[in-house]
Amino acid sequence: MSALSISMRRSKRTQRGLSLLFALMALVVISLASVALVRSVDTASLVIGNLGFKQDATATAGRATELALTWLRANAGANLHNDNAVRGYYAASRDNMDPTGQDTAHKGMRAVVDWTGATDCSAFAKGSYASCMRSSAPVELGGNTVSWVITRLCAAEGNPNGLDCATPPGSSGLPGGNRGAISYGDGQLTMPFSSSQYYRVVVRVQGARGTTSYTETIAQM
User: Cβ contacts of residue 69 below 8 Å, gap of 6+?
Assistant: First the structure.
């Protein structure tokens, strides 16, 4: 067998070996790309799913606010002159209320909320708040758990006549009104809203995958 024939056979074997090596490298690259694609799709699905849960919780909060307002209408009058903590109602404004419990800048001065409907606020460290507020009893609504706190925008409990309470904005028929603002006792209107009161409704919704949503509504009733 000639030396040229032997050299050609060795060259063919070397080429086949290199082809196999490149094929294996290409397979590894394709596999890594496939894994990255799967992870990307999983992440996108997770983000879209979480966004959907968040939107559902926010929509449920609107329904819960309607329930809270229905309770206010059913108890209009003297029943709303004083606190009813069992129902999550407070007849005086709580300006220091920290609904989310995330206000670390005012520890020791804030009023935290026990959203379980209890009164001990055991989820918060002692000394990290000034007072504990109680929410309404949790209610299942559309697969979510909702509860709320209502505060009347007055400086104190009692009959609103003679109290500093938030008043409606000024009207064209009443010169000098406090147009565009809500404040205590400033620019009191006697007509036609003398019997109207402002209420702050804070709703908390707990949904799937630990989703938590807070909404706040100011209502005039």
Answer: 201, 219, 221
Q: Is 189 helix (H, G, I), strand (E, B) or coil?
A: coil
Residue 201, by phi and psi: left (phi above 0), alpha (psi -120 to 50) or beta? beta
Whole-Å CA distances, 70 to 32, 61, 187: 57, 14, 29
- Measure the CA–CA gap between 24 and 16, rounded to whole angstroms: 12
Q: Cα separation of 134 and 118, whole Å?
A: 6
Q: Which residues of 115-144 are buried (b: 16+ CB within 10 A; e: fewer)?
A: bbbeeebeebeeebbeebbbbbebeeeeeb
Question: End-to-end alpha-carbon separation of the chain, Å?
Answer: 108
83 neighbors 152 (Cβ within 8 angstroms): no
Burial classification of residue 155, based on how many CB atoms lie within 10 Å of its CB (0-12 exposed, 13-18 middle, 19 or more buried): middle
Condensed to tens digits (0 to 9), the pLDDT of residues 23-63 reads 777 777 777 777 666 665 555 445 444 555 566 677 888 89
Strand, coil or helix: what is 184? strand
Tell whether pTM > 0.85.
no
> 151: exposed, middle or buried (C-beta count within 10 Å: 0-12, 13-18, 19+)?
buried
What ranges do the domains of the chain cover? 3-160+197-220
Q: Are 146 and 61 in contact (CB under 8 A)?
A: yes
